[in-house]
Amino acid sequence: MSDFLHELWLRGVAFNPAAPSDVLIRLMDQAAGELSQLMCKDRDLPDAVIDAALRHTERRIRGALARNQHVDPSRLAPLATDPSGLVRAQLANPHLRPWPRWVRPLPDDILVALLTAQEGGEDGKVTANDIIGELESSRQIPLSFFRSMAGREDPALRIRATWRWKSLTPAQRAGLLDDPDPAVREAAQDSNWELDPERVEAELPSIRPSSRPFVLGRCALSPALVEQCFAADTVHPLARNPHTPTDAVARLARHPEAKVREMVAARPDLGPDLVAELREDPDEDVRMRARLHPFPRAWVEYDMIDRVIGHSPECICPISEPDPDPATVPSPDWFAACAVSGEPVLRRVAASWSGLPAALVGTLAQDDDEEVRIRLACNHPLAPPHLLLDVFVTRPEHRSDLLTLPGFPRTGRTHLIGHPDPEVRALAAADPTLPEPPVDDVDEAVRRAAAANPRLTPGALETLLADPRTAEGAAANPSLPVARMHALLDRCLNGAATPPTAAGRREATPA
């Protein structure tokens, strides 16, 4: 039993939000086992603890820190040149399945270090290219960085800028095609094929089948290739491809399949006669898209609408940092117009934009359309706390993400203490204004949350520390005195068999 209690105490102290640096640094002791890695990966850490982890001789500690999504990524810069390639790879792609919805970009200096490394680390487990591959699949490189690489002094970075060819400006593409470095020019020519209809036609047979819809949906297409798509009835990608010829768009607008007509109906290049025709279409979804046509005045707006349509309230698709380039996102005025539209789809689009003004946020927070409210809660930093709490209660699939938001309410949850869902009761049990935290609840998670409630006094925690059902929560309680945290670590890390008593506590000063 004592060993089991020791494990619970260690876990609780490791994630105690009030644990000072000297307590957390002690948990990097080898005796703490894998718990030290969990602590370094899964919680916010004081600067002194980060510094200790960065200097730690154990690769697994540094690797765990590299995966930490709570620490300011600029503090992790030394890991980009860590002696261990495995640590660098964990920094390049810290996400284990399932991936989080929010993936923050890495700072430029870390990206440059990872992308320009000449070797894969002294442990020889991965290559430099392996690490780059991890980085490219991590969603941690913003499009703005690819654009900035087009003007970098290092030719290797200019070559990598060509990998997002269509995200570059015309001037940047022209500059890379005429670059003084022959390797850069070659890479630019290789990337420019996407905008050359004849080359796209020639390359398509060699592209794996799973990637062909992407090519047909984004690249410039020759007339012959367009006809092949119609003949094979593989026209869905053409319906949203900005390069689809005008005559083909007209044919798609009259396609027998409603889904194809729907995707065409809001294209910004659709003529007024076809818009009028599609507004009378027998299919409601087609008519709805045609009604939206005045709003998508450009392809960035069409794409924004397209990303929203078809996603249910359960959608947990990734959310990326907004691209700072105004040419890649609709204007604030466009989003504001969407927010007051009579079309729910457009209000959902507005609710998905994190830059919406506070007044419109307040309006959408009371929208009759549930998906508008859900999108606002998940996407906007000014979403009101009561909305975040409502979505938490009604939409379990969004709970883990909502809890990471700074605006999520830490109080005002006590009315949920009798909720039938134990996850909701656990949220209420942690409310520091709750008169009597339910430490005897039938659910383990609720008991743990109740035992960690800061309303409990140090005296009450003594009983809870000795009970395996509540020991972990009590050790995680921010009301636990620092001296008591150290005493628990003394027992656990030194292999003692009984809980320390009040007389055995030692004084400690928070870092």
Structural class: mainly alpha
Residues in helices, as a percent range: 40-55%
| Low-confidence parts | 496-511
Shape: flat
Biggest sheet, spatial arrangement of strands: 1-2
How would you state the average pLDDT, rounded? 91
Query: Rounded to an integer, what's the Rg over CA atoms?
Result: 28 Å
Total of helices? 32
Number of strands: 2
Strand content: under 5%
Ends: how far apart?
Answer: 32 Å
Task: Explain the overall architecture.
By secondary structure, the chain is mainly α. It is 51% helix and 1% strand. The protein has 32 helices and two strands. It has helices at 2-14, 21-26, 35-42, 47-55, 59-66, 85-92, 108-116, 128-136, 143-149, 155-161, 170-177, 182-191, 197-203, 212-218, 223-232, 236-240, 246-253, 258-265, 272-278, 284-291, 299-308, 332-339, 344-351, 358-364, 370-379, 385-394, 399-402, 422-429, 444-451, 458-465, 471-475, 482-493, and strands at residues 102-103, 319-320. A two-stranded parallel sheet has the order 1-2. Helix 3 (35-42) packs parallel to helix 5 (59-66) and helix 23 (344-351) runs parallel beside helix 25 (370-379). It is flat and about 80 Å long.
In short:
The chain is mainly α and 511 residues long. It contains 32 helices and two strands. It starts with a helix and ends in an 18-residue tail after the last helix.
